[in-house]
Write a structure and sequence with these properties.
It is a single chain. The protein has about 400 residues and is of the alpha/beta class. Helices cover about 45% and strands about 5% of the residues. The protein has a seven-stranded mixed β-sheet with strand order 1-2-3-4-5-6-7, covered by helices on one side.
Length: about 400
C-alpha cells in the first residue's frame, strides 16, 4: 500500500490525469462493473456492467463524461434510461455499445451523435421504437445493429436501411410469427397424413381383405394395418398373401373381362359386344364355354376355327414331319397339309406314315396336346407357341404323363 507521500509524488510526476483514471477505475469497481484493457500496453479500456452492475442507474454514469479511453461499454440489463445516455456524449472513442434489456426508448440515442467510431450497437429487448432509429442515421461507421424484441416496425427499419445501406440490421426471430408458421406447417402435415391415410384405407377396403384378418380388423378401426408385410403389399396395390390368403387368391385371378379379351372373340359377336361394355357375355352357351377357359364356338366360329388351326399346326410341329414332305412344306407356309391322308392322320394326332415315314414320334408338346390343357393355362399358351411349358411343376407332372393340376384346374 502506497504511503500518502508516495501518492503525492506519483500525482506530481504523472499529473492529475493519472489520479482521474485511478478514480474512474475505482468507481467502475464500486458499481459492480469490470474494466479491462483492450490489449497489453494500451490505454483503451473495455467496461462491462452487465454481469454484476445491474443496479447501475442514470446518475451513476456521470463519471464516464469525456472519458476518451473507453472503446467498449456494456450497460445491458442495468437501470439506465434515455436520460443516462447524456453522459456518453463525449465518448468519442467508443466503438461498441450494448444497451440490451434496458429501459431506453430512443430519444437518448441522439446523445451518440459524436460517437462517430461506433460500429456495434445492441438494443435487443429495449423499448426503442421507430423514432429512436432516426437518431442513428448519422452514425456512418455503424455496421451492426441488433433490434430483436424492440418496438420498431418494418417501416421504421426500412427507412433506416435506406439511409444506411451498409448497415446490417438483425431483428432476430419474430417468436409469434415462428410459432404461427410452425403451427401452420404442423396442421398441413397432419392434413396430408390424414388424406394419405384415408386414400390407403380406401385402397385396402377395395381390395377386400379376409374376414377376421389383421387388415380387416384395422379397417374396422378406421385405419390401415401397420404390419410391415401388409404395408409392403399395399404399396404394390395388393393384399398380403400371408394374412389374406383368400382375398389375395381372388385378386390374383384374372377378371372375366380380361380373360374374355385375351381369348379374342369374333368381331360383332355377342361376346365382342359384351366386351365393349366392359362385361362378360351372359349367354348360357358362352358362360359354359367361358368356365372352361374357351370361347363358345357357335357364337365365335372364326375364333374357334383359328384356335383349331393353331392347335393343328402346333400338333403337326410337335409330331415332327419329315424334311421335304408335304406336311413339312405346309408348315413352312404357316398351315397344315390338306392331303386327305394327312388330314385324317392329324385328326388322330398322328402323322401320315406314307408321307412321313421317318417322323411321328411324340415329344413333350405332342403329349400336352393329347392331354388337352385349358387354352388359358400356361400349358395351353405354350402349346399355341409350339413348345412345352417351362414351369417346373408342369414339367414334373408331364414326366408322369399328366398335366399339372395346379395350372390346369
Amino acid at each position: 500500500m502506497k504511503s500518502p507521500i508516495t501518492a503525492l509524488l506519483v500525482l506530481f510526476v504523472l499529473g492529475p490525469a493519472f489520479g482521474q483514471e485511478s478514480d474512474r477505475a475505482a468507481r467502475v469497481e464500486a458499481l459492480g462493473g469490470m474494466m479491462l484493457p483492450i490489449a497489453a500496453g494500451s490505454d483503451a479500456v473495455r467496461i462491462d456492467f452487465s454481469l454484476q452492475g445491474r443496479e447501475v442507474a442514470d446518475g451513476d454514469l456521470a463519471f464516464l463524461v469525456d472519458w476518451k479511453n473507453v472503446v467498449e461499454l456494456n450497460l445491458g440489463g442495468t437501470k439506465v434510461t434515455d436520460a443516462g445516455l447524456a453522459h456518453l456524449a463525449g465518448l468519442t472513442s467508443l466503438e461498441r455499445l450494448s444497451l440490451h434489456k434496458t429501459a431506453v426508448r430512443g430519444p437518448g440515442l441522439a446523445h451518440l451523435a459524436q460517437c462517430q467510431k461506433l460500429h456495434y450497437l445492441n438494443l435487443y429487448g429495449s423499448q426503442v421504437g421507430d423514432e429512436g432509429l432516426g437518431h442513428l442515421a448519422g452514425l456512418k461507421k455503424l455496421k451492426r445493429l441488433y433490434l430483436w424484441q424492440t418496438q420498431v416496425t418494418d417501416a421504421g427499419v426500412a427507412k433506416l436501411q435506406e439511409s444506411s445501406p451498409e448497415l446490417g440490421i438483425d431483428r432476430g426471430w419474430d417468436f409469434e410469427a415462428v410459432q404461427a408458421a410452425v403451427a401452420k406447417a404442423k396442421a398441413e402435415m397432419e392434413a396430408e397424413k390424414a388424406a394419405a391415410q384415408n386414400t390407403e384405407l380406401t385402397k385396402l377396403t377395395a381390395l377386400g381383405p379376409d374376414d377376421g384378418s389383421c387388415c380387416a380388423q384395422a379397417i374396422a378401426g378406421s385405419k390401415v394395418c401397420d404390419h410391415p408385410c401388409c404395408l409392403a403389399a399395399l404399396a404394390e396395390g395388393k393384399l398380403c398373401e400371408k394374412c389374406n390368403p383368400k382375398g389375395a387368391a381372388v385378386a390374383k385371378a384374372p377378371s372375366p373381362v380380361a380373360t374374355l379379351k385375351a381369348l379374342g372373340p369374333d368381331e360383332g359377336s355377342c361376346c365382342a359386344k359384351a366386351l365393349a361394355a366392359n362385361e362378360a357375355c351372359a349367354h348360357p352357351c358362352c358362360k359354359e364355354a367361358f368356365a372352361q377357359g374357351e370361347l363358345c364356338s357357335k357364337c365365335n366360329p372364326k375364333a374357334a376355327a383359328a384356335k383349331q388351326q393353331a392347335l393343328a399346326i402346333a400338333t403337326l410341329k410337335a409330331l415332327g414331319t419329315d424334311d421335304g414332305s408335304c406336311c413339312s412344306k405346309a408348315l413352312a407356309a404357316g398351315k397344315t397339309c390338306e392331303h386327305p391322308c394327312c388330314v385324317s392322320a392329324l385328326e388322330k394326332r398322328q402323322l401320315c406314315s406314307k408321307c412321313n415315314p421317318k417322323g411321328g414320334k411324340l415329344d413333350a408338346v405332342a403329349l400336352i396336346l393329347i392331354l388337352e390343357p385349358k387354352a388359358t393355362s400356361c400349358c395351353g399358351k405354350a402349346l399355341l407357341e409350339g413348345k412345352g411349358c417351362a414351369h417346373p411343376c408342369c414339367k414334373e407332372a408331364l414326366s408322369k404323363g399328366e398335366l399339372c393340376k395346379k395350372c390346369n384346374g
